[in-house]
Amino acid sequence: MSNIPSADLLAGDEIVSAEEVLQPDDPVFDPKTRPDINTALALSSGSVAGWVVPFASGTFEHHENTTDQGLFRCLFGRDSLIISSLLKQQNPVLQLNTVCALGAYQGEKFNSASEEEPGRIAHE
Question: Would the pTM of this model clear 0.70, i.e. be above it?
Answer without folding.
Answer: no
